[in-house]
Write a structure and sequence with these properties.
By secondary structure, the chain is α/β, with parallel strands linked by helices. Helices cover 35% and strands 14% of the residues. The chain is built from 14 helices and 13 strands. Strands 8, 9, 10, 11, 12 and 13 form a six-stranded mixed beta sheet that branches. The protein has a three-stranded parallel beta sheet with strand order 3-6-7.
């Protein structure tokens, strides 16, 4: 996925498959464009006018849970970790921060990863750069618990944190919509609030289901290509079966054009031939990526784009970098924005 770090930094891509790569894409995308921290989901209408946004302020559960600790949990890196306190929590990704805050425990978060761009996190100190954590900065905050991704690094920094005696729990990544609840529950169990996890999981899944019920049924599903763009670095990639966007596109009633054209990897360099084979009716991009190429006008100047149905119609779906592939409590809003942009806000 997506983070949040990027095909622009290939050394990271080998650490995680699928959505994990996309999460990586998101983080470096935020850094590479001087991360404004807006965190909203925007629409770029087919005509280039108008925008639909999601709230950048999270909606915590109505009742603040009280952690029942200690708990012992299995960390995704193979360790068994006992969590004895959760008064000072340090989540090392934007998506993990979002879950902690939405569970109602945001007041215990002491710092943030650069990809945590939602309103409640903005004033927190940042302990990462290019998604690499500073062990010294993290330890100086005296955290009781660190929540990490499988991509969190460097390895030396994570080892230094563990050697200092701080519990580190690595959470399995979400690979698609079906993993939203699993990921939420893993965080909730780690924090000693399993009931809150079940409540948030149910709320999130219900909201996603409601959006899916509102997807217009058409005779021919639109083909949508997920493009990763960084004009400043001349990086132009098309997502394949492992990009992390497939389940989101399918939930919106669309076909992942890259995957359908036979692209099996996460991302492949854009060529005229690849675009012609994918033949997308629309393209899905991250907002900062679209900005980096000069908007829709710049996008259609990328070789091959103008010749696709999407390029001819200037049909572009734009979603904010820091939330697109989080697969968390705001995924229903991302899906709603995608549906509205593909079919029109009136659902027609």
């Amino acid at each position: 996925m997506p983070t949040h770090d990027a095909p622009a930094h290939p050394r990271r891509r080998s650490r995680r498959p699928g959505v994990l790569i996309s999460v990586l894409v998101l983080a470096c995308a935020l850094v590479a464009t001087a991360c404004s921290g807006s965190g909203t989901t925007k629409a770029t209408a087919t005509s280039g006018a108008g925008a639909a946004t999601t709230a950048n302020r999270l909606e915590p559960l109505a009742t603040t849970p009280r952690p029942a600790l200690p708990v012992t949990v299995d960390s995704a890196d193979g360790h068994e970790v006992t969590v004895r306190k959760a008064d000072r929590i340090l989540p090392l990704s934007g998506s993990l921060s979002e879950i902690v805050f939405t569970l109602g425990l945001g007041e215990h978060v002491v710092a943030r990863d650069i990809t945590a761009t939602f309103d409640q996190a903005k004033k927190l100190p940042v302990v990462t750069r290019n998604h690499d954590v500073s062990a010294e900065s993290a330890l100086a905050l005296k955290p009781d618990l660190i929540l990490a991704e499988t991509t969190t690094g460097p390895v030396e920094a994570m080892r230094q944190i563990r050697d200092a005696g701080v519990p580190v729990v690595v959470i399995d990544p979400a690979k698609g919509l079906d993993d939203v609840g699993t990921r939420i529950q893993a965080v909730a169990d780690t924090l000693g609030v399993p009931a809150a996890g079940r409540e948030l999981t149910q709320r999130s899944e219900d909201r996603i289901t409601k959006v899916r019920e509102d997807v217009p049924h058409q005779g021919r599903k639109p083909r949508v290509a997920f493009l990763y763009l960084r004009g400043s670095a001349s990086v132009y990639l098309i997502g394949g079966a492992e990009s992390g966007a497939r389940s989101l596109l399918e939930a919106a009633g669309a076909v992942d054009a890259g995957a359908a054209s036979g692209l099996r990897k996460d991302f492949t360099a854009i060529t005229s031939e690849a675009l012609a084979k994918a033949a997308p009716d629309a393209v899905l991009v991250m907002t900062k990526g679209l900005d980096s190429v000069g908007g829709v006008d710049g996008l259609v100047r990328i070789p091959g784009v103008a010749e696709t149905p999407a390029g001819v119609d200037r049909r572009v779906v734009s979603v904010e970098d820091g939330v697109l592939l989080n697969y968390g409590p705001r995924t229903d809003q991302v899906l709603r924005s995608l549906v509205d942009q593909l079919y029109g806000t009136d659902g027609a």
